[in-house]
User: Fold this.
Amino acid sequence: MVWQTLLATVMLAPFLVGCSGGTSRNADGTGTGAAAGLAGDSGGAAGASGSSGSIGTGGGGVGGAGDGDASSVGGSDGFDASSFGGSGVGDAGMDGGKAGQRGAGNGGAAGRSGVIDAGMDGGKAGQGGAGNGGAAGRSGVSDAGMDSGTAGDGGAGNGGAAGVSGFSWRTLPSLAKKRQGAMGVAVGETMYVIGGLDESGLLEDVERLDPGQAGWTAAPSLPNPQCCAAAGVLGNVIAVAGGYGPDGHTPTDALLLFDTTTGTWQSGPPMPTARAVAMGAVWNGKLAVIGGGTQYGALQATGVIEIYDPAAGTWTASTLTVTPRAGGVAVVDSDRIYVIGGAIQNSLYGNSIVEIVTADGVTAGPSLGLARVQVTGGLLPSGLVIAGGWTAQSDTPTAEGLLGARTAWQPMPPMPTSRAGAAAAVVNGSLIVAGGGQYKGSWVYQDAVEALQAD
Assistant:
């Protein structure tokens, strides 16, 4: 099916190849393209950065540096350093390094500043998260996994909370059907999850969660199975544009309109450019469809912006374009559309790119901390937030926020359930993320529904 193939090629390939700037690491500490520097004594610094060659077991070990960078804080072998000393920066693995299989150490404290396993710029936080039984550190920022890093199996760390304070995730009723690649929208206080796919193939099923209800209920199904479309709400009408149609591999130009007051679907005028995995946003009362993949898979992407006017019942091609890409998310903030992440043209990797579309043009926005594709997001009262997606290593629970003056992304508390290709919508000031997939050798579809909200 298309979604398995799309994710296997767009996501499994970077999982196998590794992220930009990363190097391969062997269990004995050897690797290519990086040197750990001087070996150092137990508990001491790893020494100056190396130029090339293998890491070696006496230097940073598996937790050593990548691509010529020194490992942050040395250990006797990079595996079982029981304490990282005053600065508390343990196994950071900057610029493509790997944080080490045991994170902060087997039962050891992460250090006083509490910044552990950050895995910046392509690093991987490590399977142990904060460490097997180790404390996450006093500042509570652990396993942030920024810039193509992943949080690791330990997530926020054993006992540590990651990200900006004042936000938390809560669990909502699970979907009736596990699915990935579905479209999510909110009409008032009701959230809809539309189509997608599961083990059986593309889905026509639609579910809704009404305020105060104990579970999701069935809504009128799509006319045909569909996934990976752009969607938005125009008054009481849900608009679903493009995506993959029933054959599972051909991007479509179809526009489907669901009137939530009558419970009926009808076809609208076709979109000028057939595409899938495009970014959709409602802007000034119209549906803007941005970018997307124009062929089977995601390597052929477009940057065109086409706008559907529900009053006129017509499409208009904008003179503006974004960097060609697919699988990002578009979030409207006042008169701006933030087009966030995705896989750019001819790339198998998620990107950290952010562009801002206004009536006057397209400008660069603050880059994401974690490059990703198949990401969800929305606008909360405090600012833009995104969550989940696929990095160069795996699906991720990592969340980020562009808050305040909108100058830089900040780490938010990670989702309890790591996933890519989830549906999302904002309801009553909370970002609700539903379904998605985890990669465990093959895709495992999810029914989890979790909401990020201000405390």
